[in-house]
Amino acid sequence: MGFMSPPSPPPPDPELAKQRKAEQDRLDKQKAEDERRQADMERKQRQNLLGTRSLQDEEMEGFGGYRRRNLGKSIRS
């Protein structure tokens, strides 16, 4: 009774399988690159290698980096 069985699905397309594998490889490389960049940024932040504070001397502990404007006051007072 072959007329009662459901139709079989078509065989997988080898070209489509190649495309899926290439896309998955690209996504894996991109994910690895993103993780590497994130780890590098984290390392730079931990070791204080980013920003203006990284360029300061170790002796300048209390320096905030910005001067406040004294409005209405003389510079020499």
Explain the overall architecture.
The chain has one helix at 14-46. With 77 residues, the protein is mainly alpha-helical. The N and C termini lie far apart (106 Å). The longest helix has 33 residues, at 14-46.
The DSSP helix count reads 1
> How would you spell out the order of helices and strands?
H
Low-confidence stretches: none
Please, what is the average pLDDT? 79
Largest sheet: none
For the terminal residues, how far apart are their CA atoms? 106 Å
Alpha-beta classification: mainly alpha
Strand runs, count: 0
The percentage of residues in β strands lies in under 5%
Radius of gyration equals 31 Å
Estimate the global geometry from the Cα principal axes. Answer: rod-shaped
The helix fraction, in percent, is 40-55%
Write the layout of secondary structure elements.
Elements: H1 14-46
Please tag this protein with its features.
43% helix; 1 helix; rod-shaped; 77 residues; mainly alpha
Give a short overview.
The longest helix has 33 residues.
